[in-house]
Amino acid sequence: MTTGSSESPDDLLKYLELVASNQKVNARNFQYGFSILRRINICFSTAGQHLTNPKPLIAGLLFLRAQSAYKAAVGMSLAGQVPESFQMARGCLECAGYSLLMFNDTALADLYMNRHTSADDLKRQKSAFQISKVRENIKSFDERLAEIFHENYERSIDFGRHPNLHSTMSAITMDGVSETGSFTVEALSTDPKVLAHAMRNAAHSSDRKR
């Protein structure tokens, strides 16, 4: 069993260089998909440029963090870090969902900021920001958007956020198992279908913010 690493255990720099190389190559190989990802980022950036004196402030900050998570998800999907890209996609959804929740109820901003003040504050914050409540808040604006949010959130869990079947098996190459009894755990996937799936998911993670 291998992890996609070179023979030397001191391979971090080589790995990062391969990540950067894969990102550039796959941006060219998946030109149409990448063009969609770029347009989504432009929407983020344009909104951010007009984000003046947001109320509450933390809602604006979380919107910007959503874009950062989106960029990370895109970068990971292009690199071939497929399960990890779904983790970032979930982060994007959560940042955006929390932002909208506080925009709709500004009193939640104080609750969010006081999360670590006491055990009771932590409990109240967790209760107020349950993902089911985030989804219901989105539903109050757009019912279909809430459905899309739920679908994408569950997908991000299934394919990466939790170490379950889909996320574990999507980065494994089973060639040669019957002959050698070995398989490869891929740190960087090269399967075009797997890469395309990760890129689509990165794009979908922004659906609820359009």
Characterise this structure.
- The protein is mainly alpha-helical.
- It has one domain (30-37, 54-203).
- 72% of the residues lie in helices and 2% in strands.
- The chain is globular, with a radius of gyration of 19 Å.
- The termini are far apart.
- The model has no long low-confidence stretch (mean pLDDT 86).
Topology:
Blueprint: H1 12-29, H2 31-49, H3 57-79, H4 82-104, H5 107-113, H6 119-128, H7 131-141, H8 143-161, H9 165-169, E1 172-173, H10 177-180, E2 184-185, H11 192-204
Antiparallel strand pairs: 1-2
Helix pairs in contact: 1-3, 2-3, 2-11, 3-4, 3-11, 4-7, 4-8, 4-11, 7-8
Features:
210 residues, mainly alpha, two-stranded antiparallel sheet, 11 helices, 2 strands, 72% helix, 2% strand
Beta strands, count: 2
Please indicate the percent range of residues in DSSP E strands (runs of 2 or more). under 5%
Walk across the major sheet and give the strand order: 1-2
Query: What do the pLDDT scores average to?
Result: 86
Unreliable stretches covering 5 or more consecutive residues:
none
Structural class: mainly alpha
Shape: globular
Helical percentage: over 70%
Largest sheet: 2 strands, antiparallel
Give the termini separation. Answer: 43 Å
Count the helices. How many? 11
Number of domains: 1
Rg from Cα: 19 Å
**What's the helix-strand series?**
HHHHHHHHHEHEH
